[in-house]
Structures are given as structure tokens and as C-alpha cells.
Amino acid sequence: MGENTTEVPAEPGPAGQLRALGVEEGGVLLVHASLRGTGLRAEELLDALRTVLGPEGTLVVPAFTPENSDTSPAHLALVSRAPDPAAFRAAMPPFDPDRTPCPRMGRFAERVRTTEGAARSDHPQTSFAALGARAADLIKGHALDCHFGEESPLPKLIAAGAQVLMVNVGFAVCTAFHFAEYLVPPRPVRTYRAVIRDERGGSTWFAYQDAVLDDSDFARIGADFPAEHVRGGPLGRRGARLFPIRAAVEHATAWMAEKRY
């Protein structure tokens, strides 16, 4: 007579799906998410991620505000619809890490940003928000004149062995690839301008030089990303991908060095 065995049922819901993908308990996770069509609410996904990451884990999201830069298409579109463009620009509020929303990043990023205990970096156009044990350490020191380079949170995420989770989005929005743009010479630069708070608490336009950012080939870079680094699976009613940020940056750096320049 054979030995009786009892199968352990799979963990239900999005938490079980995240564990099946390989999200690491106690790890650092950078999440890009579009909830449309997933059947998941922002609070539901956040709860599942915090459950899987555990008390020692840290969740990071892009909290970008492209509309706060007069060199971005998002800002130019707003100005084009304003009855008085000059008055619109003059009335733009300064970036405030504690209050400025990031609606273009989607419902999930905004939910993370507004959760009690979340920390946010200081960059007026490409800030990151984080929640968890290492949140403050990972996002501090984000220089105002550095989108995604050495003085951004990305090197810290790489050093921390972070994973990247992409929920219902493609590699075209993979922020990790931007760090590679700082590593491949020649590194062209341009002038950016954003509204920040001045010393008296008012607003002022801040101009700075930083790398030219180009995500037009990110989908191609992602298509060539070796499959051995990427785990895919369902999340809600859509799919998700998980991969190490270091592998993504190393791949993008080599790809750009060969095919961009």
C-alpha cells in the first residue's frame, strides 16, 4: 500500500501569483504597473506585494512628473491647451515631494506615493517613491540635476540586488534601461528646466544639464533581453515579467554600445 501524501494548495490570489513569479521576500522590488484589464485594484496589488516582500522588503515605483518640465511633450501639450501660455507657466506650482501627484505613472504608483510611510526622492521631473524597510535610504540623495545617473536611486537599486516587476506593460517603459544611457560613451547632454521651490518658499524655474534620454529603442532592447533572465506569468487577468535589475542594465549597456553609436 503506497504512502499517503497531501498536496499543499497553492497560495490564492495575486500574492500567490507574485510568489510563483519569484518575487523575493525581504528584497527590493522596482514596479512598473498598468492595472487596466488586470482586474486588480491598486490597494489589492499593494497589499499583495507587501505581503510577499514582508516587513524587511522594500517596494519602489517611478513617481515621475514630466508635466513639470518645459522640455517634455507632456508639458508642451498642457501649454498648447492653455488660453494664456505665459500665465499658465507663471502659475505652475513648484515640485513638492510630499504633495505633487504623479498621475501619468498610473493608479498603482500614485497609491504607493500616498501611502503612509512612503518616501519620495527630490527630483522635480523623475522622482521615485518607496515604501518599506529601506525606502528612505534608497531614494535619498537624488540630485536635482541627475535624472537616472549615479546620483539617482538606480545605482542603489542595483547594489541592493533589486528585481524589476513589470505588470501589464512592455520594456518600452523600463526605467532601468535609462541608467545604461549614462554608461555608454559618448554621452550627449542637453538643458532641462523644471519648477522647484526657492529659498523663500516660492517657485522658480531651475535649469540644469543632464544626459539626453531616449527610450525610442527600449522595446527593441527588451526584445533582445536573454530569456534566461526573465520570468513571466499571470498576475490578475494579465501578465507580468520579473527580472534582476543588474542583468537588465548590463544587457542594455552592451546593446547600446553595439547598436546606438
Automatic annotation (TrEMBL):
Keyword vocabulary terms for this entry: Acyltransferase, Transferase
Pfam family, one: Antibiotic_NAT
Family affiliation: Belongs to the antibiotic N-acetyltransferase family.
Name under which the protein is recorded: Aminoglycoside N(3)-acetyltransferase
